[in-house]
Amino acid sequence: MDNLDRIFAQVRDEPMPAGLGEIDGGVMAGLASGRERLAARRTLMLACIVAGGVGLWGGLAGPSPAQADDGSLLGVPAAAPSHLLGS
Predict the structure, then answer these.
(1) DSSP assigned state of 34
(2) pLDDT (tens digit per residue) in 5-28
(3) Which of 12, 41, 71, 79 is geometrically suited to a Cys-Cys bond with 75, CB 3.0 to 4.6 A?
């Protein structure tokens, strides 16, 4: 136990390394970039949820599906000039 106390005393008496004081900037920059990535993920997730909701609403609440015309393929369309003039 005396050996351990002596080692701790030696470590306590040594000066702090110069690189240890500069580590704060790197740690804070890493935390800031992590927060930015998290905010970007949240924004992307919100955009996906909104897009999905709008797509579902547009698909379910939209107009009824198109229906085929009952006329034959060779019939005269209602907007044809001969049909409009009554010939």
Answers:
(1) H
(2) 999 988 888 888 777 778 888 889
(3) 71
Which of 21-30, 45-54, 73-82 has the weakest average pLDDT?
A: 73-82
Structure tokens at 69: 């015309």
Contact 76, 82 (CB under 8 A): yes
Tokens of 74: 């060779």
Are 33 and 25 a contacting pair, CB within 8 Å? Answer: no
Q: Mapped to the 3 state alphabet, what secondary structure does the chain carry?
A: CHHHHHHHHHHHHCCCCHHHHCHHHHHHHHHHHHHHHHHHHHHHHHHHHHHHHHHHHHHHCCCCCCCCCCCCCCCCCCCCHHHHCCC
Taking the C-alpha atoms of residue 34 and residue 28, their distance in angstroms, rounded to an integer, is 10
- Rounded to an integer, what distance in angstroms lies between the CA atom of residue 42 and that of residue 35? 11
